[in-house]
Amino acid sequence: MVADVFLDAVLDCLKDLPFLFTAFLLLEALEHRTLEKMNTALAKAGNWGPLAGSVLGCVPQCGFSIMASEFYAGGVITLGTLMSVYLSTSDEAIVILLSDAGHFPDVLRLVVTKIIIGITAGYLVLVAEKMWKRKNPRREKEIGDLCRNCGCHEEEGGILKPALHHTGEVLLFLFIMTLILNLLLEGIGLDKLSSLMLADTAFQPVLAAFIGLIPNCAASVILTQLYLDGVISFGSAVAGLCSAAGLGLIVLFRVNRNAKENIRIVALLLLIAAAAGILLQAF
Fold first, then answer.
1. How far apart are CA 212 and CA 189, in angstroms?
2. Which of 128, 178, 266, 268 has the fewest CB atoms within 10 Å, measured from its CB?
3. Confidence of residue 164 (pLDDT cuts 50, 70, 90)
């Protein structure tokens, strides 16, 4: 069992390697070559962030939420955009479920609902974020924040060396966390955990949202399958899949140095996902 879990953790991390490296390479390119111009352009286009984030986030893969976490920590995107990506993010589970043509309308309904929630919540957060910044001005995040005190810019090595440095650092962190999570899931069993928590109660969407926070594709597979099997409501399925930001949350805690801010982001994600689920279940 341990060998299988170890191999699964290695394969999971290898799948995310291209996204990690691409994101860090883009950030290094921005910092070294076009930082001032790109920051200006992104600031002007910031109002379109939640819309773009929600649409792109629904593409079935975990990598986009990883890139969004890195971009947020580097000040490239706003909190509203980050939240829209997290809420709409879909992973390989959607691809697996779409392979069954009979469930296509159900899965499509889930994905479209998540996109709408991502856009709506993203813009609400964006407005609140702007109002908060006007009342509480503080230093904005910068791409260089990802690289403070890491030593990778002590010598002029272009963008490849620091990108590789950060990719390796985060990949190691991801591997350790994924290995621990896989061992827990293998030992306890997500099926048993789900059956114990998802009783037929009015708080089912809240419980589903907590399960969705488990940064592993297995969580979203179970939640979607429980919905398709009629075990949980549509609202509960949406709540769980909206909070399922995948490995993006793990990367956020690794690259964004403000731990309290990270906890607030997770709490906000959970609150929005649960509230959306309860609202849908009520109607």
1. 15
2. 128
3. confident
Number of domains present in the structure of the chain: 1
Question: Which pLDDT does position 270 carry in this prediction?
Answer: 95
The distance from CA 231 to its chain's CA centroid, rounded to whole angstroms, is: 25
Distance separating alpha carbons of residues 169 and 255, to the nearest angstrom: 10
Residue 115 near residue 55 (C-beta atoms within 8 A): yes
Handedness of CA 105, 237, 119, 73 (dihedral sign): negative
**pTM, to two decimals:** 0.73
Give the domain extent around 68. Answer: 2-282
The pLDDT value given to residue 194: 58
Spatial separation of the C-alpha atoms in residues 125 and 82, rounded to whole Å: 10
Query: Mean pLDDT, to the nearest integer, of 197-209?
Result: 78
**Per-residue pLDDT averaged across 16-36, rounded?**
69
Region class of 189: left (phi > 0), else alpha (psi between -120 and 50), else beta: left
10 Å CB burial of residue 3 (0-12, 13-18, 19+) is: exposed
CB atoms within 10 A of CB 130: 13
State the amino acid at position 8 in one-letter form.
D
Contact 206, 51 (CB under 8 A): no
Distances (CA, A) of 199 to 128, 203, 206: 35, 9, 11
